[in-house]
Structures are given as structure tokens and as C-alpha cells.
Amino acid sequence: MILANTLDSVLARIAAEVEGVPAVWAIHEPVDWRKFMEKFGLGVLESCARIFHSSGPMVYVSEELRTLYPANQSFVIPNRLPSWEPHAPSSPQDRLSAKQRLGFGEGVLVVVVGIVGLRKRPHDVIQAVQHLNLRGIPIELAIVGDFEPGESAYVAQLRRAAADGHVRLTGRVPDATPFFQAADILVLASSNESFSLVVLEAMAHGVAIVATPVFAKELLVPGTECLLFDVGDIVALEGHLAKLALDQELREAIGRAGWFHYRQLTTFEEQVAAYGELLK
Question: What residues contact residue 21 under an 8 Å CB cut-off, 6+ apart?
Fold first, then answer.
């Protein structure tokens, strides 16, 4: 049995078909699979199309993702956080203490967590935060994560934008948990995602979430468990951040709603068991 993970494992999946080896293909990418496969050549594209339509089970991380692919035999097994028990959402005093430990002030802290690259669009968040500070709404921004390889020019652009004092680029950190403990708001501004583990982590910490609708929309209820904005809509993003920054009660209510939702989700152990059933 072969477990082929992500679209990049297409050659392993084709080899399994050629050799008659049972295989499960787990797909995470919310992309046009035909365009994605063009880099492998026409033969791979044709084999991939055949597999999608007739051969073996496919696994997707969200219902939304499944709609992008033509597989006949498909299953949805959502991502989950391994061994992650949600704590009660931080009290305002605990959050303030966490901010101080990280060297932030007493104001609202927005975090962007994950690989730092153009697809994640942290520049949109920087621009929104800078505008809000100019309007007299004090917000600090922490962009937490390693930099995307091959995007040095973009990273240099972010560093220049972060020089005004309201933005901190941390680079890679061994554990982002202290930033979730300190955060008032998590922003996910990505142009595409399949199923964001960062969103799950924010939910588990009771952090209010502002996001583009690209992370598996079935995960959170817009308006009560998160606030959504279209990719690149900085005006809408700025409006959401201003609303939450100025209304602590709303901010905490959205964070608590996400936290309660997280507690109702299936567990990592159930995710593993679901894969185990397919791989028997």
C-alpha cells in the first residue's frame, strides 16, 4: 500500500497504478490540477486525469477542496492538531503578561503566523495596520515564521515596510505558542489555502480570527466565529481590524466562539484512525 501525499507525489501515484500496488492519494492543494501537472509533461497529465476518474481512493482535507477535483472515490479527512488540548481562552491580564514577555506593549496585538511569502500576503496586513496607526488606532503586528525560499526580494520589501516600529518580523521561531497566547487577533490573508492549521491553533487559544475565505469555509461561521474579507481587499481588512481593536467585548466573543467550536471538532486520533481504515 502506498500513501501519496500532495499533488507533487503524482509520480509515486502513477507508479503504484503501473505496478498494481494499492494506493491512497491525499491532496491538499486548492489549485487547478491541470495547470499544476503541466510541469510534469503531457504523459503525466493524461495519467493523472485517468487516476482521478477511475482509480483508487482520494483524500481531501475539506469538503470545499473536494469540489475542485473530479475523483469518483473520494473521502474528506480534515487536518487536526496532534495532541492539542484547548486551554480556556486567555484572560485580558494573562494576554497582557504574554505580550510583555515578548516585548510588546499594552495595545492590541495582531499576529500573522506561518511561512512568510507572497502567497500569504502579509503586505496587506502591514498596510492595514499602518493605516490604522495613522488614524490613531494603536495596533502592533507580529509576522511570525520562516521566510519562503526564493523570495528574498519580497522579504526585503517586507523588512522595509516593517521599519516604522509597528511591525515585527520574527523569522523562524521554535514554537509559536507564546504569540498565540499574546495575540488579540490572528489574520490569515492568504490568496489560497487548503486547510489552515494556523486557524486551528488560533481557535484552540480563543484568538479572534480575521481571514480570507480560502481556508476551508466549513470550519468557522462568518460573523460569529470569524470575520472574512476578500483576498487583497485592504479596506475591508482594515475595517475588521478597527472594529475588533475598538471593541474588546466583540473581540473576546469571537475568540470564545471559535474556541467552543474547536472543542466540538474531531480529534487528531480520529484523523489518524480514518487514514488507517483506508490504508488497511
Answer: 1, 2, 15
Fill in the amino acid letter for 188.
L
- Secondary structure tally for the chain: helices H, strands E: 12, 10
227-228 and 185-188 strand pairing? unpaired
Helix (H, G, I), strand (E, B) or coil at 245: helix
Measured from the Cβ of residue 92, the count of other Cβ atoms closer than 10 Å reads: 10
Strand order in the sheet with 227-228: 167-171, 139-144, 108-113, 185-188, 208-211, 227-228
- Which are the contacts of 37, defined by CB distance < 8 A and separation ≥ 6? 7, 10, 44, 45, 48
**What is the full per-residue pLDDT of the chain (280 aa) written as tens digits?**
889 999 999 999 999 988 989 899 999 888 889 999 999 999 999 998 888 887 678 999 888 888 888 867 889 999 888 866 667 788 889 999 999 999 999 999 999 999 999 999 999 999 999 999 999 999 999 999 999 999 999 999 999 988 878 999 999 999 999 999 999 999 999 988 878 889 999 999 999 999 998 866 678 888 999 999 999 999 999 999 999 999 999 999 999 999 999 989 888 999 999 999 888 7
Which residue type, as a one-letter code, is found at position 167?
Answer: V
- Report the C-alpha gap between 257 and 2 in whole angstroms: 39
